[in-house]
What does this fold into?
Amino acid sequence: MRKRLKRLRYLAELVAPLYKEGRVKRYLRTLGPAQDALGQFMDLVVAGSLAHEIVAGGDPRAWFNVGWLKAQLPDAVDRCGKCLRVVVGAEPFWR
It folds into this structure.
């Protein structure tokens, strides 16, 4: 989803000169928070995977990291959902 949003943003920026500037900027402002939220979610997922690898490597102290990162995931998912609902509800500038 994050890569698709990024591609959508790039395409919107590419064709922006063909449309009214205000409408394009307003649309692009809805994409930024969603990209950020998805990026933070992915950071948590990758960090959790790395923490699991450290535990598997024999360092039991990394269990704290695993637990903390896992506890952050539900809030990150909620933030993603809220931001993506805003994107879905955004009025396309190309109409």
Notes: Residues 21-56 form the longest helix (36 residues).
